[in-house]
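Entry 14: structure prediction run for Ferredoxin--NADP reductase. Input pasted below.
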Amino acid sequence: MSKFFPLKIKNIIRETAEAVSLEFEIPQELKTEFSFKAGQYVTLKTTIEGKEVRRAYSLCTPPTDDTFKVTVKEVKSGTFSVLANNKLKAGDVLEVHPPEGKFIFEPVQDGHPHTYAAFAAGSGITPVLSILKTVLQQEKHSRFVLVYGNRTPDETIFFKELLQLQAAHPDRLFIEFVYSRCNEENCHYGRIDEGTVNYVLKNRFNDTNFTRFYLCGPEEMINKVSEVLLKNNITKEQVLFELFNTEVEGEIKSNLEGETQLTIKVDEEEVTLSMPKNKTVLQMALDNDIDVPYSCQGGICSSCVARIVEGTAEMEKNSILVDSEIEEGLVLTCQAHPTSSTLKVDYDDV
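Run finished. Output tokens:
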């Protein structure tokens, strides 16, 4: 069974007109279960109009704080985000999956100062804030450069908190605000683009060796920033990213006609069934009430990862798994279509 625990909402904080933070109460007996690394996310589950809804949200607090909080930005015509911003209240209970995800920061205790940078847009600030605070708290001599894009200051999540952090750490935290709808003094106008990245690398911090870069936000921004970083001799290993949405449509090159004998192993139990190749593995699992882990269903989180034990499958799109993980058989089941007559996937062996 996919592990979810009922957690009570301790507090709801209005961050902007379109975003709220949900702070959860973690019972003492679940403290270990809900321990996390900076940058990780949780999956929230509830029922809306009789339908189960799951959504992944990044934790915005550092692991050392005694708070467990996610931030939800309202999306027009959204489902859970509308509920969170308009109807949820302190005392309500949601089902919460323990933290997961690979977009993480782990403090380096080597005694040397490091400099980290992050490029975030909109609600992409949420995991970055957790990472940023962890650096300031646990690497006392390290620095952090944040480039943060929004439409206006009023729509900038954690705006006041970031200014307070910058004032408290003037020699360690440097923030470049970027606004696309207004021209503010000492801020950049427009969007995070090649010029913004080059300003950080070649102008303001041209004599700095960055240890790592964290990118979080829309796919277009992440692709552009990654491209410019690589042009500036930053290695792929130095860049971590997390998508909050994607505009790229998936594409399958293989022929998806016919059926496949699918075997799913989860929680040490196996289920075998016949499935059409034009469906995904996750679709088949959910259609047959098999309780497998999942969240976004869009190929931008890693909740539904399983290992291919037998057979082959092709993903419509993949923004999470690296080549070495794919080579060892890992697959995003929400994107995976069988390409062999039999396919066995194991959710336990990941």
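Notes: The CA atoms of residues 93 and 248 lie 35 Å apart. Will compare against the previous run tomorrow.
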